[in-house]
Amino acid sequence: MFSPSLSGASYSSTVPSAVMRPVAEFGNEPVWLLLAKVLAIFGFLVLMTLVTIVAERKIVAWMQVRPGPNRVGPWGVLQSLADGLKLAFKEDIMPTLADKGVYFIAPALSCIPALVAFAVIPLGPQVSVFGHLTPLQLTDTPIAVLFMLASSSLGVYGIVLGGWASGSTYPLLGGLRSAAQMISYEISMGLSVVGVFLAAGTFSTSEIVAAQHDMWYFVLLAPSFLIYAISAVGETNRAPFDLPEAESELVGGFHTEYSSLKFALFFLAEYVNMVTVSALAVTLFFGGWQAPFGIVAAWAGANTGWWPVLWFVGKVFTCLFVFIWLRATLPRLRYDQFMRFGWKLLVPVSLGWILALSATRVFSAQYDIGSRWPQVALGATIVAAMLLGLAIRTRRTAVSRTQALVSHPDADYPVPPLDLRVPDPPRAEALAGPLAGAAQLQRRE
Fold it and tell me: In angstroms, what CA-CA distances link 219 with 263, 281, 292, 383?
């Protein structure tokens, strides 16, 4: 097992016993406590969805210098609840050409995996609940992170089947885009967490959190964190990677033909996926529920009791703010740019980083030196090289486009013909025939 310490000590000797919980002990609580945890996780995700929708509308409005929702509830904070009730009471419309069975279950296939994936996320340490000592986590397994990645990847089936079963062109195109997009960025996301496995020596989420008690992995594994963050945005179909929806091209993408509660389930799945990938980012790279180091230094009890839930939720909201910030700032990428970025940059850099990280750990173990600071230096170098390469490529692309416009002014911006005439609608043409004949008869008389 790889050691997470600077000196090469064993894993158990570097982790405080108060935050450790053997994986085999999960699931031994009373049935009522397990059911309470399930309900608490479901309520937490639904509440986070409602809060995130309002926060997104308010923050984007603030960035765009406009009021935003301000009618329902104080300062408009109940707007998302009102929208949910409105969707529940709207008419449920099913297209004539839809495959009714698949059309009905597709939203559930998209929403359920997002909810299930949160089961292995640790929200805090062990606490006492009515005399029972239990961790603030539903369950944990030796392959918990792989379980989360597998559950999240199943959401693509709901989107693809929903687009195909609608019996319409635009949803089908959105579903095909989503299939290619999610499969492509799942590869880079899976490769990005390999560095975490190498550093922590475990796949268990609770043990990964415990291994970060003295250094968070976003510092130790900066390239892994950067690749994960980009892949998470692509995996959740959020701007600038919202190509399966693409309102300006596909009306609404894969859910164009959905309404009422079925549309609400797709909407819920998107925001629950945002919360889930943010929680996984916090667990893998930001110390999970552990308090920031400044707070720990000033307050010894920051990581005890129910306080860690506050630190965890604060970190998740910080990640969600980045999602919102990207949507308000960046334009949508072209599809070829998006796929090229994933396959030709993220995947090769991930593979190179894994090889370099493994070589650094072997070298450090062979010469009995601390392995963390060489990893930090190596990761910073790779991140700087990635950013420099993107800047150089962007500069070259801008220069080549400028030169092309100078030499061929009409190459990228074709001018329509001057005699362009918009044809009349078919109904207007059909009505024009009888009316024109009646006019001619009147003139003859």
Answer: 40, 13, 13, 11
Angle made by CA atoms 55, 216, 140, in degrees to the nearest 5? 80
Question: Where is 126: in which H helix or E strand?
Answer: strand 124-129
Taking the model in full, what pTM does it have?
Answer: 0.82
Using the structure block, give the residue that is written with the tokens 């492509």: 184
Let me know: does 371 contact 199? Beta carbons within 8 Å: no
Tell me the pairing of strands 124-129 and 132-136. antiparallel
Reported as a single tens digit per residue, the pLDDT across 203-221 is 999 999 999 988 899 988 8
Distance CA 126, CA 137 (A): 9
CB atoms near residue 185 (< 10 Å): 27
**Rounded (5°) CA angle 325-331-336:** 125
Domain ranges of the chain: 11-81+91-382
Q: State the distance between the two ends of the chain, measured CA to CA, in whole angstroms.
A: 102
Asked if 246 and 174 touch (Cβ cutoff 8 Å), the reply is yes
Q: What is the pLDDT of residue 248?
A: 74
Q: Residue 135: which residues within 8 A CB-CB, separation 6 or more?
A: 21, 26, 122, 124, 125, 126, 127, 206
Highest-pLDDT range among 189-198, 373-382, 392-401: 189-198
CA separation for the pair 149, 253 (Å, rounded): 24
Give yes or no for a cis peptide into 223 (omega within 30° of 0). no
Tell which residue, 156, 162, 158, has the closest CA to residue 178.
156
Inter-axis angle of helices 144-153 and 260-285, nearest 10: 150
